[in-house]
Protein 1
Amino acid sequence: MDKLKMQTPNLIDKNIEQIAKLFPNVMTETRDEAGNSKRAIDFDLLKQNLSDVLVDDEDERYRLDWPGKKASLLKANTPINKTLRPCREESVDFDNTENVYIEGDNFEVLKILQESYLGKIKMIYIDPPYNTGNDFIYKDNFKISKEEYEEEIGAVDEEGGKLFKNTDSNGRFHSDWLSMMYERLVVARDLLKDDGVVFISIDDNEVHNLRKICDEIFGEENFVANIIWEKVHTRKNSSKYFSISHDHIITYAKDKINWDRHLIPRDNTDAYKNSDNDPKGPWKPDPITAHNYYSADYIIEKPNGVKLKRPQDRYWVYSESTWKERVAKNEVIWGEGDSYPMVKRYLSEVQDGLVPITIFDRKFAGDTSMAKGELSDLLLLGALFDYPKPSLLIKRLQQITTSSNDIILDFFSGSATTAHAAMQLNAEDGGKRKFIMVQLPEQTDEKSEAYKAGYKTIAEIGKDRIRRAGKKIKEELKEKNKQLKLGEKPIDAAKLDIGFRVYKTDLTNMKDVYYHPEKLQQGQQLSFLENNIKEDRTPDDLLTQVILDLGLELNLPIEKKDILGNTVFIVQTNALVACFDNNINFEIVDEIAGLKPFKVVFKDAGFTDDKDRINVEERFKRLSPETVISVI
Ligand SMILES: C[S@@+](CC[C@H](N)C(=O)[O-])C[C@H]1O[C@@H](n2cnc3c(N)ncnc32)[C@H](O)[C@@H]1O
């Protein structure tokens, strides 16, 4: 029986819960007066979350710490002056596709996507460097000031030399890797939907540390599973201790209570037949005895008079009354002589699918050799990429959590297996899942087959893989549609989205003066207006940065229209209309206002003078008062 509290509620506990929702990474534990452990807040980490300078602390507490941890939190919370530039030439079906491929460092990309995809991603799958002692990871300098850091962020691409091999002779071997993962996961968590989930492939080198930082970032109550994937079956007999045949896939939900785990579709439905035209539909024979102990002990009498006891080391599956019911309903296959009867298991009565188990064997999810095989078959070459995952494995994960229209993000995308799996699953179930792949344009080794085949970067491998996999999947779907079984519905191959928009990270389109107009000297005003955009940037570039700035998604349909001789971009009917031309006149303003856009963006330098700018506002007030007008 519950005992009444007989006192006012403990607001501290409530407040702690509120903070935990906002900043799960600041939760820790402490002991109360009686020595029992209880949840508490790590005030230093909370302070760091709210501060734009490094916070000092020296207290002991329960948490995983490493040099550079707070600096990486600071980094995760600091804005960057970078943007994405579209690359139509490398894209497939740019105007209509809803898939996105981004080339760049994933930390920068995650930050760039922060507003547009806040709370919108259903599933993140990542397969980061495992920190085996041979991986290249991004170099970070933890001892720098915020200003230096910001400068450095802008310089990463130009220097191009920030990737370094993290060998275990590095004094910060684990710390560097942890910081690299921590800052990315902190930003990535915000992108997840409330019912979203993240899957991270990892091996024994860092699984324990990764679990700890994920407990901190996602909350340990949101840990879902540590899936063991059988990556190889063969035994390496030269192994000194064990021949390692598995990887981990650690799984966290954004909020486990909200997460709706799907069942895995049954793939053994072919075993169900209807040889006797049973009105309850296809069935398969199921044994009536099992090893599991069950207390029911009765004698079964077959219609041929044979009496059967349960076998010595097995038990009846059914209680006596259920057994009698099955007999009465004629659902028993008696069999000859003294053989044990079977019962009919109807397809219509089994669950639509199977609850996933935490061991993914290679027959169910594929293995490394399958992964390499499918990649080299597609790209018609040998070993092009060292550690691809099989698309079947990623498809299984997608089946567990995604439905049509969900967005799937992979920000260590490598050969783009995740994109391949999403297109494949859409072709199988008619879904409209969309993907976002992020990959560093990491150079391939000059001696590698990939390099010789013309793939100078891993991003080039990834993009080509999507092009080829997309075509193949579409062709296979068309073939399948020609050979449908009775009752099977075709999936429209024309609607399968196998395109993708390519974007690349770059420094902002705007000149420094845009961010620091106070630095302008008197009399410079006019030239500032004309020149606040970098000379090499196109209207497409400007539109992309505006879309991101306004928090719109990158996959919205864009229409490029010529209106009265001006280039006008119309994003998702009237979500945004933008015109970056010079000498904007009232006719074009009236035409745009007539579209009644939610948001409209012009170039500041597009107006001849201040008077024009004020007039434009007046005209919108009259013609489309709801429109929010902005300039760049
Ligand atoms: C193990 S691979 C992923 C393989 C992938 N799952 C597949 O099936 O092909 C890790 C990838 O992450 C990329 N990578 C490493 N650091 C990165 C960063 N900072 N930003 C983006 N990609 C990065 C590497 O270039 C590599 O291609």
Protein 2
Amino acid sequence: MEIKVAKHAGFCFGVKKAIEIAEEVAKNNDKTYVYGQLVHNEKVISDLEKKGIIFVDNINDVPQNAVTVLRAHGEPGTTYQILEKKLITKGKNLNDATCPLVTLVHNVAIKLKSNGYEVILFGKRNHPEAIGTSYHLKGNDTFIVEEPEQYRVVFDYITENKFEKVAIVSQTTMSVYGYQKLIENINSLLGNEKFEEISLSLRNLDKKYGFVDTICNPTKQRQSDTDELARESEIVIVIGGKNSSNSKELYAKCREFGVESYFIQSQEQLQKEWFSGKEKIGVTAGASTPDYLIDEVVERIREITS
Ligand code: SF4
């Protein structure tokens, strides 16, 4: 029996950095507040709570003047405004762990908008990253498309509103295949003018319809490694937090491929019967899964299959 762990599995650099920042700040302060789930992984959150970090889901619950860390997913400007009123500011007591690749999406969205584009977001409506990016567009009125199958609604939105220029950007953690599919689907309904790629440098902003590839590289690496794993394995175990968008994408990928697959949060959920008669076992994990959880899962698979 062979257990193969995907080459790129677990923490991405953005999540690693956010955790390092939170731990460092907590070491030097009696109380450290983090707004929202720092990473979408229940185990990691509970480990950080044990180190004295206080997580709040409502920004109003951050006390006045409190030492605060902002998560990797990026925040709307309103978060900074509320914190400023509480005397929490950068350079003083605000530690911003926003991933630079999320900031890049914000900057792309802002530039497209200021160049006359109606910007549509391919993302998950309730995901903090999508909420943060929407702030730079039309706030709650930003058009968000969650699935490639919703292409007709996008087409109707574009044609009914007769926008002069339309651009699509993606949340960093969406499916690469799903994004391609969405563009292809919309293009199948359009006439001569189709959506074409605009490079990340945004040099050419005169296309009527354009899309920018803003899915981050760590997400792409995890997705392509999972493709390979699904092809080679008889069963794939995907480890990730219940709310982790990129982990759910990896699981969906395995299911689409048709390989037997299970989405778990930790080794306790593994069941012996899943592995009966299997010789090739694949293990992968989303960007918010720590290495020790991956190691524990591999160890437990070895135990129950030996
Ligand atoms: S998934 Fe990508 S964008 Fe999100 S924190 Fe990781 S590297 Fe940054």
